[in-house]
Amino acid sequence: MEEFKKKGLILLKISEMASVIKMPRLSDTMTEGFIKGWTKKVGEKVKPGDVLAEVETDKATMDLEAFEEGTLLHIAVQEGPVPVDGIIAVIGQASEDFQQLLQISSANPDPRKDKLPFVENIDKTRFSSQNQEEITPLHIVSDPDQRIKASPLAKSMAREMGIPLENLTGSGEHGRIVRRDVENFKPGVGAISIQTTQIGDREVVLSQMRKTIARRLAESKFSAPHFYLTTEVNMDACVQARTQLNEISPVKISFNDLIVKACALALKSNPGVNVSWMGDKMVYHGDVHIGVAVAIEDGLVVPVVRNADQKTLLTLKEEISDKATRAKERKLNLDEMQGNTFTISNLGMFDIEHFTAIINPPDACILAVGSIQKKPAVVNDQLAISSRMKMTLSCDHRAVDGATGAKFLQTLKNLLEQPVSMLL
Description:
With 424 residues, the chain is an alpha+beta fold. It has helices at 99-107, 111-114, 152-161, 179-183, 208-223, 236-248, 255-269, 313-328, 402-417, and strands at 10-13, 19-22, 32-38, 45-46, 51-56, 61-65, 70-75, 80-83, 87-92, 128-129, 138-140, 147-149, 226-234, 275-277, 282-284, 290-292, 294-296, 299-301, 304-305, 342-346, 365-379, 382-396.
């Protein structure tokens, strides 16, 4: 047996025998991947770079690419979940006997423990996250020779609306079914009628992302002792500063951009909040990497703005907008969604005045930002109408004490109430 290394996938290889492809761990939170469909059939020739299947992870939907030339000899799972290190497929020479290799792989699920050859260094770039409307996955039907081209979003919408894919006509490239085809579908002769009002319960299979969100938030909420600190900020000066900035800025600066900038500076001044709880140790981060929560169709993703304290407002604006857009289109790379040292969740655009957020581990804190509301307030000992905004800091008491969190909020509040200080 010889060690054989290929980037992108975990595989086993014995001499010149076939290679067993296993599900790689593509993020620190991933425990399984979900095979959504295959673009190659058993017996088809493949070459490096060919897309074999579509895999949904806890972070994104990926294309599973071939790593070497050969024939697809075996598909272990046509559609469904596969645990990390679980067998996905076998690639080798046509008519090659691969059963021995499968038996060895099944008998040794963790090659590292049994010293079998394996690929340890996974190159995540071999999986490419793509816009759901641009992917051309194949919908698996009862007849393996008949396949319907449809984007993942279109398949999901059709399934929820009860529309069989065979009743739809694709308007996308090469006749693939896309979202507009589902939205524009009208039942006709021979088609199944769609009820606009549904009565009764509806079951929806959880996506890998939703499963991971549920698991991680439950672990965070019930393992980390949360406490909450709330403050109200006078945003009058910030509103005025934003108006003036947008008169000269080539792009419009949002309040969220100002809040991210202020948080970055406040974290630099209060390093006791820029920490991670790692079980048997704490990590005090020298860099400020802020995760900005973005709501998407399947749940929530957190693109990370690295070294946010060193970037101008204009640079922050462009990066946040770009990553938020690509997050909604499923185009973010995995490394753009991990490594945060602090997280911001802003629901102000939904007119939510105040809420508390669950910590995004291993961060020790998360900031929940509410809407800016005009209300009566005492300003300079005078009753006036003022723009006010509430912020709540959720803290892991194992890592952050009340006074440490309060000092951070005090610094943050001062920066937002005197926004000119952020430009010094």
